Structure formats: C-alpha cells, structure tokens
Amino acid sequence: LDAAKRRVAELVDQLDSDMTAMIVALDDKPDVVQEFTGNRRLLREAVKRIEPTAKPTDIRGALELASGFAN
C-alpha cells in the first residue's frame, strides 16, 4: 500500500493545472475519499488518509463508481 500511495502522490504532482482527479479507496466496497478536484493538496491528503484493511478488493465496483462520477 505504501508503494501505491507514493506512486499516486507522484501522479498527483504531475497533474496539469487544468486537470482534475478523484481518489477512490479499494475495499470490499469502494469509497470515494476525495471527489474530483484540481487541488493537489486535497488529493495528497486524501491518499494519506487511506488505511490498509484485510478485506477483499472490489475493483469492478471501484471502476463503476469512478465511471459514474466521470460521466
């Protein structure tokens, strides 16, 4: 998880000023930690709040959730 969080932080830092992103935590149910924003500080803080769990990951649910927000 730590490596993934570092990689996401790198991607957030690379966002162009006109780009937005959202942070979704993967768990047995996806959780929107930060809705779409271009504020890099909010995105980085959201990534820091994600904690490891022993629950299975619902990737499909997370992708469907993100797709719903994007459309």
Topology:
Blueprint: H1 2-13, E1 21-25, E2 31-37, H2 40-49, H3 59-70
Antiparallel strand pairs: 1-2
Question: Percent helix among the residues?
Answer: 40-55%
Q: What gross morphology would you assign?
A: globular
Q: What's the helix count?
A: 3
Q: What structural category characterises the helix and strand content? A: alpha+beta
What is the C-alpha radius of gyration, as a whole number of Å? 12 Å
Which labels suit this protein?
single chain, 3 helices, two-stranded antiparallel ribbon, 71 residues, 17% strand, 2 strands, globular, alpha+beta, 48% helix
What do you see in this structure?
The protein is α+β, with helices and mostly antiparallel strands and 71 residues long. It contains 3 helices and 2 strands, in the order H-E-E-H-H. Strands 1-2 form a two-stranded antiparallel ribbon. Strand 1 (21-25) and strand 2 (31-37) form a beta hairpin. Helix 1 packs antiparallel against helix 2. The longest helix has 12 residues, at 2-13. It is globular, with a radius of gyration of 12 Å.
Summarize the structure.
The chain is an alpha+beta fold. It is built from 3 helices and 2 strands, in the order H-E-E-H-H.
